Structure formats: structure tokens, C-alpha cells
Amino acid sequence: SYDVPVAGSVSLTNGPATGGTVVTVSGAGLGTSGYSAGARVGGTACEASTWVSDSSLLCTVSAGVGADAKTVVVSSEVQTGSLTLGWSYDVPVAGSVSLTNGPATGGTVVTVSGAGLGTSGYSAGARVGGTAC
Fold first, then answer.
1. Which single residue of 14, 39, 70, 72 could bond 86 by disulfide (Cβ 3.0 to 4.6 Å)?
2. Are 25 and 72 in contact (CB under 8 A)?
3. What distance in Å separates the CA atoms of residue 17 and residue 102, rounded to the nearest whole number?
4. Low-confidence ranges of the chain (pLDDT < 70)
5. Count of C-beta atoms within a 10 Å radius of residue 114
6. CA 88, CA 120: separation in Å to the nearest integer?
């Protein structure tokens, strides 16, 4: 049998919800160039995984949401190893709203602008005064 691959560290620990960040996952037992080493972040496969050496690979992180830390899993053939709390997406930030007041009855449409609000495949939401929109 072969040693189980190990994910020991990630070169960056957070990035934008839009994905596309290239990180180096360092560890051990990632095989040789002839084998398909790969990585997953929070259960989602990297957009691209590139084997660099037995102790590192490059992962282009896929889009996602959630500031809670995700587990990074590396694989070599059928064996896997993981790094708990290895990655998180940037916290969403509300920068401005299109209107700052409206009737108490509600029903006013406002646009919230900011950063890290995710991509079209995810469900963004907002609250005004603790009440969901």
C-alpha cells in the first residue's frame, strides 16, 4: 500500500467569492507527474489542479460563498488527505444602498452594492433592520 496524501498548508487562506484564486497546496504523498493529483475546497473541485511535485500542487479555487472555513482535500489516485479550516471566502461587504429611507409599509425596492456578494449561481440576501428582504 501507499502512504495517504497529506494536505499540510495552503499558500492563501481566503479569497473572493468569484473564485479564480490560484493557491499552492503543500503537503506530502501527492504522487508523481504521471498520476492525477487533485484538490477540492469545501467539497467543490478546483477549477484546475496542477501537479507540481510530490509535496505540492496548484489549485484554482472555484467560486463559492461563506466566510466559514472550508476543508481542503487533496487526492492522489483513490486516496485522500485533508486540511481542516484551510480556506474561506471573503466576507460580503455592503458598501451602499440606492435609497436611505422609505415608507413604513415597506415595498420599496433598493439596490445594495458592495463586494463579495457571490456569483449568479448562489443565493444572496439582505436584511433591513433585522428583517429579511
1. 72
2. yes
3. 31
4. 1, 34, 121-123
5. 13
6. 19
Residues in the chain: 133
The pLDDT score that the predictor gives to residue 91 is: 85
Quick one: cell of 22? 490560484
3-class state of residue 12 by DSSP: coil
C-alpha grid cell for residue 125? Answer: 440576501
Tell me the one-letter amino acid at 117: L
Cell numbers describing residue 110? 433598493
- Residue-level pLDDT at 1: 64
In the numeric block, which cell numbers belong to residue 5?
Answer: 496524501
CB burial of residue 69 (10 Å; 0-12, 13-18, 19+): middle
Q: Which residues contact 84 (CB under 8 A, 6 or more apart)?
A: 69, 71
Beta-carbon count within 10 A of 68 CB: 9
Q: If we measure between CA atoms, which residue out of 66, 52, 70 comes closest to residue 125?
A: 66
